[in-house]
Amino acid sequence: MKKKYKRVYSISLEPGYRNYTVRDLIENKGKKQLTQIHVATPEEAKAAEEAGIDLLLVRVCPELHEIRKAAPKTFITVSVPFIKYSSKEEIVKDSLEIIDMGFDSITCGSWNLDFMKYLNGFKIPFQGHAGLVPRRSTWIGGMKAYAKNAEEAIQLFKDIKDIEDTGAWGVEVECVPEEVLGEISKNTSLVTISIGSGKKSDVQFLFSEDILGSSSIPLPRHAKQYRNFKKYYDKMQKERIEAFKEFKNDVSKKSFPSKKHVIGIDAKELSNLKKYLKDYD
Q1: Which helix (H) or strand (E) holds 79?
Q2: What class is the 6-227 domain?
Q3: What is the Cα–Cα distance from 147 to 105, expressed in whole angstroms?
Q4: What would the pLDDT profile of 56-88 be if each residue is shown by its tens digit?
Q5: Does the pTM exceed 0.85?
Q6: What's the CA gap between 177 and 149, in Å, rounded?
Q7: What are phi and psi of 271, to 5 degrees?
């Protein structure tokens, strides 16, 4: 059966079609678990859309336009890091520009709650982040699971309710016990997005680099690797080196460029050039 898409407009009234709107995501809560992948390239975005992945997440990068074009019908959220912004006005200005490019949502990560409330005033869709938030890991004792005791679980619930109060539509919950997220998800209107937090969420999230086995760091405990791209990349790098060596060797032996690689000239025309250059001296 052909998939149905919703007709949407960007802030600048650019028309398009999407698999989900924010309203769809909210209304789907508790009914069907969706999938989200963090992609880094247009090729990954295109593959994800063709594979039927429901939601995509991407960092701010030079290829943003190309990523949007590569997956034109998929709901895409862009991660806007707070760290380079000194004011809520600046960060919202950039967020508006991203939405104007045709993206569907912003992920606020470690944003100040007041910044998130300010963003909501412009009706820009956004999601938050709770649990193990890497930029805030020093506050929980480092990069480790969170909410493994009742005290932390209660604090996690309060953090998620604070995010809910800012006007967010969803929240990424990272590395907390499955049962904890399950209980909290039933007590928040936010769409819960699990990464390392089990199955009892509204969305299941992974990074493409973990799925594809292309990461430069060890595979996280919560992730599953479905391919080993690093093996292919290593082989490609060896082939690159060998090809460059062969090129250098050909140049040294005067075997490149050969006659088929160069442009010829009529003998008479060449003779005229030589005569001109001789007379020029």
Answers
A1: strand 75-79
A2: alpha beta
A3: 27
A4: 999 999 999 999 999 999 999 999 988 888 899
A5: yes
A6: 9
A7: -60, -40
